[in-house]
Structure formats: structure tokens, C-alpha cells
């Protein structure tokens, strides 16, 4: 690959990623952001209630009481630590950081799509790009969400590292499965594709010991629906734009 071709492909990645990231940010602003802010209100109210329940001047009467007191104190320390952690201020600053994160993520996914275009050796247009985007939606959102659905703030969850490992495994196996379905003709390859598709869900996603959330169930379900819709718009736009600019620049 010469420098001119590489530069054109990079241009397609940057332009498609930037436009898709901006679109995702706009959709989130109107659909998802308000649900997150509402869930954060429940989370902060729960933390305030837990802090108010702790009486620093009280002396435990029993060993069990001392044990409970120690746990409440640890929770209060954790909440105090979280409160001291830096986070962008609500409003323009938070929106700016969200847009920056979305555009960066979109450029990364666009790079993966354009690399897949090149490796496939097929003619690419915005129409075929939509199909690639639909595949990306299935790989990076739908399949992982079957085991780890989107969660509002204040939801109990399994350890982060375990969830990340399962997410990566599921996305990789789903991508390999779709590749075998599309690019192989014999039944052995398609059978392996089926096994790869169901294996992560047979293993099961890591779950917390106790399920629960400070936010109402209706809010959690609305968040899942809004996130699914926002990601669908994002991936279709990313696929179509990547295909369009790949053909135009490449």
C-alpha cells in the first residue's frame, strides 16, 4: 500500500468517524442524557441517605453493632472518596467531554470498518456500508447486551475486569462467527460459526452476587431502549459514511 492510498483511507476513517461521533452525541443528548441525569439523582439521594444513617457519635453496644458500624463507615468513606474524584461539571463541560469521547470512539470503530473493507476485497459503497454497520451493531452492542445490558448509574454489577473480559470475548467470537457465515461456503465453517456465536452466552456473563438498583425499573428499561436506539443510529451512520468515503477517497 503506497502513501497516497493510506492517506485516502485515513481521510475516510477520520471524516466518517467524526461525523458519526457527532451524530451519536446529538442523539444521546436528546434520548440518553436525561435518563442518566435522572438516575444520578437517585444515586446521590441513596448516598445521602446512607451517610445520614451513620451516627459518628454513637457507641456500639455489641460486637455485632461494631461490625455494622464499621461497614457503614467504610461506605461513607467510599462515598466521600467518590465525591472528591474529578468529574466534568454539568452543562457545556460535560457535553464537550462526551462529544470528544464519542468522536474518538467512532474514529476507532471506523478504522476497524475500513480495515475490514480492505481485507474483504469486495466493492464497497454506502449501501454495502450499511450492512457492515449493521454487523458492527450486532457484534459490539447486541451480542454483549444479551448478557450485560446497559446499566444506569447506581446499578449493582459484577467486577469491572470480569465484565470487560466477557465483553471482549463475546464481541470477538460474534465477529468471527459472522465472518464464517458470510465468507465460507462449506457447512463445517458455518457450524463453527454457530458454536462461536452461542459459546459466550453458554458460558454466561459475570453477574453480581446481589442484583439491584437505586433507580426505578421503569427508568432502567427506558435507558436500555434509548441506548439500543442510539447505538443503532450510530452504527448505521458509521457503516454508511465509512462506505461512502472509502469509495470516494479510495
List the helices and strands and how they pair.
Layout: H1 3-31, H2 33-52, H3 63-84, H4 92-120, H5 126-147, H6 160-183, H7 187-203, H8 217-249
Helix pairs in contact: 1-4, 1-8, 2-8, 4-8, 5-6, 5-8, 6-7
Fold and architecture overview:
- There is one protein chain.
- It is built from 8 helices and no strands.
- It has 250 residues and is an all-alpha fold.
- The protein has a domain at 3-36 and 92-157 and 208-249.
- Helix 2 crosses helix 8, helix 4 packs across helix 8 and helix 5 (126-147) runs antiparallel to helix 8.
- 24% of the residues are buried.
- The model is unreliable at 58-83 (pLDDT under 50).
Question: How does the helix and strand content classify structurally?
Answer: mainly alpha
Radius of gyration: 23 Å
Point out poorly predicted stretches.
58-83
Largest sheet composition: none
Query: What is the assembly state of the chains in this entry?
Result: single chain
User: What is the helix/strand order?
Assistant: HHHHHHHH
Instruction: Tell me the distance between the termini.
Output: 12 Å
Number of strands: 0
Query: How would you sum up the global shape?
Result: globular
Tell me the helix content: over 70%
Q: Count helical runs.
A: 8
Question: Could you write a compact summary of the structure shown?
Answer:
This protein has 250 residues and is mostly helical.
